[in-house]
Amino acid sequence: MHLFNAYHRHKTPLLAEIRGGCLHNATSDELPIDLRHLNLKLDTTHLFDMRPEKATGIWTMDWYNSLSSQNEVAKVAELEQLVFDELYKVYPQRMKTYQQRYYETLWSIEEVVMRRVELAVSRGWGFMMMQNTF
Q1: 109 alpha-carbon distance from chain centroid
Q2: What is the full per-residue pLDDT of the chain (134 aa) written as tens digits?
Q3: Where are the domains positioned within the chain?
Q4: What is the pTM of this model?
Q5: Which DSSP string corresponds to 91-116?
């Protein structure tokens, strides 16, 4: 019961899944952003073509998908963080709003789990540990 009472709820860690969700939101909203100065290993030629109809500079799903397809898996998280940080600089309120939605979802799940733990503890039930057998 002590562990249950000592647990701090509603923390706001920037989990990779939350960061990825925010990037997805930015792509859905087609936020314009210039990432050329970041020197990403990413084919952006179609975004910064000199022809006006091609030079959109909009963070698109193509860019987002290109992070994975054009880079090693280990690099993707680093690249996502760079893009996330840049979007946060340009659109701080928008990015905070995206994050808040994910945190609220996380917190609601946390509340359900904690209520179940509280019920189990109050009834003296034990917890079963399952080992990964894969």
Answers
A1: 17
A2: 555 566 677 777 778 889 989 998 988 888 887 777 776 655 555 444 444 444 455 666 666 666 666 656 667 778 788 889 999 999 999 999 999 999 999 899 888 888 888 888 888 887 666 666 65
A3: 16-120
A4: 0.67
A5: -HHHHHHHHHHHHHHHHHHHHHHHHH
